[in-house]
User: Fold these one by one.
Assistant:
Number 1:
Amino acid sequence: MDIEKISNLIKTKRKDRKLTQEELANKLGVTEKAISRWGTGRGTPDISLLIPLSKELKIEVSELLSGEENKNITKNIEAIIEYEEKSKKIRNKKPFVISIIIYLLVIFLFLYYLKYTYSDVSWGERYLFHLLVTIVFSSMIIFANWNLYTNYFDKEIDKNKLKKVTYAVLLVLYIMMILNMTIFDRHMSKFVWQGWDNYYKYGGLNIIPFRTILKYIIEIKQYWPRFFIINIFGNISIFMPVQYFMIKVFGNLSFKKYLLINIIMISLIEILQFVTSCGSLDIDDLILNVFGMSILYYLYIKRESNEEVK
């Protein structure tokens, strides 16, 4: 099997059929980069794509495997096996290796981050540090996965699966950042119920809706700008990325289902803060968090609807 002949035949027949790389990619459900690799001999079509590709190029599979048009070659299993073996050998492993190295680096840095994050730093510095680390880790994961589905995988279905994995990883990283800020980074010694001694600690317990919100609004001069921004706008916006990542991972579930998931998740965090004396249990935090996530859900669904109309 001659890889150069196969690539030349693919490129020639594609041009004869007056198909651009993008058009052929869309017909086969692969990336445009994949078509480019096939036409330059830097890669070969997956064995599952031989028949669809042959149909689009108006040639026989046997012709595609031989790299020569109208050559009378018997379609046999040996030719397919040889094609598969040589395809694996010429496949560029560099993008795969690069992504694996990045994944290992993220794991190493994350373990170091967990060790460092419990050092004694001020609350403001700690928040910015958590946020910066999350952005850096997220960027590394996004790049590693982009590198794979751009330079390693051919099929669009593989690309979409990898995108979903990317958002799942980002969802986990972001939730861990929130847990670090709200619970684990507050010098928690053990998970024990400390009774009503925790009532006044970190704001204590509030089960009266809008009590805290109204307090910050009525006494805005006292709390503006730092406490007002953190406790109002901060609580509205902090869980918005969580909602976005969940939509990307779980799909467009109904608003009621996401609302239930959000209420349960945030309630558990609020309860965990209170029983471990790491924070308050404030229903207003729940209201603001869910409100922010609902805004994000609405904006995302509205954008999707507008794109469908176009």
Number 2:
Amino acid sequence: MKVGIAIPTPQFVSAQFALGNLPLIISDAKKKGYKVSLLYKSGVRTDSNRNHMLKEYLETDVDYILHIDADQIYPADIIDKLVKANVDIIGSVYFKRSKPYDPVVYVKSGNEVNPYRPVDLKGYGPHHYEVDGIGFGGMLVKMDVYRKMGDDKWMVYGKNFHNPTKDTHKETHDLVFCQTAQKYGYKIYVHNGVQCYHIAEVPIGKEDYERCRSNNA
């Protein structure tokens, strides 16, 4: 099984991620028999960076792309756990860096202005569950998904994302990708057994979200 890791990189990359976490991910995957390759692309537009790496991987024979971000910490066995779920699109659980530290895991809300609401997976088992939206941080996608989506595979922000006068269609490029994939009949999953940390002044994780929820109860 061949997995291509794709990392859009800011100007400065966390040493905790690059020198500590990323080597562990690659080492664990290789020990378990995966063939792993790595691409990174720098620039101010994250969607454009992802598209450049996707284009390169489409010219190879990798089976999956693992999208990871350089401002997060992932379980060392993330590749093995996500691949073994055996679904087309699956993500990891991580949390926003600002209070109330909502999970970047969503279901549709039915509200036109705020079409998604975050999902609290507390109490759920360490398995994968169907949702409507996930972030690119720790998202594994089968290459066949991109090939079947044609030109719709390229990642873009919502058409009004950068327009301060509009209230709708302001989705981030990860949610736009999820929307488009669903139109092609693909289901979106998140793996509650793959818990990640968002690097802020300190790494932010499930404990911070739950503590914030408890304090506001």
Number 3:
Amino acid sequence: MEAIVKTDFHFPGQKGKYTGKVRDVYDIDGKYLVMVATDRISAFDVVLPEGIPYKGQVLNQIASKFLDATSDILPNWKIAVPDPMVTVGHKCEPFKVEMVIRGYLSGHAWREYKAGRRTICGVEMPEGMVENQKFPEPIITPTSKAAAGHDEDISREEIIAGSIVSEEDYAQIEKYTRAIYKRGTEIAARMGLILVDTKYEFGKKDGQIYLMDEVHTPDSSRYFYADGYEERLSRGEKQRQLSKEFVREWLMANGFQGQSGQKVPEMTPEIVRSISDRYIELYENITGERFIPAEDSAAEDEILQRISSGVSECLGSLE
């Protein structure tokens, strides 16, 4: 299958289009969103030059499964999945924070800890911890949603004091964050995985809080394999990860970290195919189901026509 890295649809009722790093989002009458998970891939805040076949389908279908698996906790934005690469849902007014929750001392939190800091986003971290160790209780470390550039760490107190989110709403999304993460960790455990950390986005529609965006995908979450976790921790070894960290590692090994003057290494067909295979492996490990490609082989125009037809039919049923 050819990778889909660009879309330019004109759906009935379309009011606008937003192009993100990896997704194209179409506004329908100010009421609905059509989110196309393209095959673009980003790392270090840079969109890489080659698309990854099936990546969009993998992420869209994982997110869809976890939205369904958490819909009893709170409503979510999803209405339908008219194509393996597309979700149609409610347009909500997003809160201008991302709710990051961490069950383990990894990634950004570990880098802060290693630098000697014991507070992150106003949350105290215990003394004497080692990389990838489990926190006594999961911690919530929000980030502000930047219109451009990097998101920034922010504390609960700063969010409320700055009226970014009201105290009442923040208390509620904090509660939802813990409940969704708990559900995610339970599902991961059944798959032999550890949900290390993840992030959620919330919004409001008609006064009701909704869960938005993608949930528990390898692009928004970090997973470890549970088998061997304790042994590796005790020996100070790296954990076996299930995330797109392998893409970052390949880039770093080839001299690229998104810094000025650095050049993205050549993405040969073999590299692209290996990344595609890893995303399919991620899907099967996270969901416990075999990945079924939308098409065994299809030209770009055929895939785009498939998406256009499926979405147009879906939107027609919402009128």
